[in-house]
């Protein structure tokens, strides 16, 4: 999973999508023009707000039969997310985050006394990506 900056141009998004080997892009209708050419290369485009010609609507995903989803084997060392750096020393670069790395980061936050965190062992924490600034705290 990777998140693209909404200020990126179509060329910048295409470069990132190619580097990430994107199969699916979830976007808003107002950004569809920036990603529509990727559909010619087999990338599925899903709009979350309005139905746009040539784009699937989010309701297609939300109505899918979960039992048809394949079981995927993965290693803790597999890349789970590919956020892009800000590119302060050049063009933005993908930062490979593994399952183990993200779990370790959460475990470090949970372990010990931190008066700013009010998590408990039984809490379930939902992270809705992309969040370009918060998610980068894991880099």
TrEMBL record:
Record has S-adenosyl-L-methionine as a keyword: no
UniProt-recorded Gene Ontology molecular function terms: 4-coumarate-CoA ligase activity; ATP binding
Protein keywords: ATP-binding, Ligase, Nucleotide-binding
Documented EC number(s): 6.2.1.12
Pfam families: AMP-binding
Transmembrane segments: none
PROSITE patterns: AMP_BINDING
Cofactor: Mg(2+)
InterPro entries with a match to the protein in the record: AMP-binding_CS, AMP-dep_synth/lig_dom
EC category name: ligase
Origin: domain of life: Eukaryota
Substrates-to-products reaction catalysed: (E)-4-coumarate + ATP + H(+) = (E)-4-coumaroyl-AMP + diphosphate; (E)-4-coumarate + ATP + CoA = (E)-4-coumaroyl-CoA + AMP + diphosphate; (E)-4-coumaroyl-AMP + CoA = (E)-4-coumaroyl-CoA + AMP + H(+)
Protein name: 4-coumarate--CoA ligase
Organism the protein comes from: Cucumis melo var. makuwa
Taxon lineage: Eukaryota, Viridiplantae, Streptophyta, Embryophyta, Tracheophyta
């Amino acid at each position: 999973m990777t998140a693209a900056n909404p200020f990126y141009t179509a060329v910048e998004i295409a470069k990132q999508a190619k580097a990430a080997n994107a199969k699916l892009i979830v976007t808003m209708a107002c950004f569809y023009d920036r990603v529509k050419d990727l559909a010619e290369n087999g990338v599925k485009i899903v709009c979350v707000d309005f139905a746009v010609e040539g784009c699937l609507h989010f309701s297609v995903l939300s109505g899918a039969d979960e039992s048809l989803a394949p079981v995927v084997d993965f290693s803790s060392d597999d890349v789970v997310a590919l956020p892009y750096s800000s590119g302060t020393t050049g063009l933005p670069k993908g930062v490979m985050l593994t399952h183990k790395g993200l779990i370790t980061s959460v475990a470090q936050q949970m372990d010990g006394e931190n008066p700013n965190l009010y998590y408990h062992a039984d809490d379930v924490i939902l992270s809705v990506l992309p969040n370009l600034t918060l998610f980068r705290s894991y880099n």
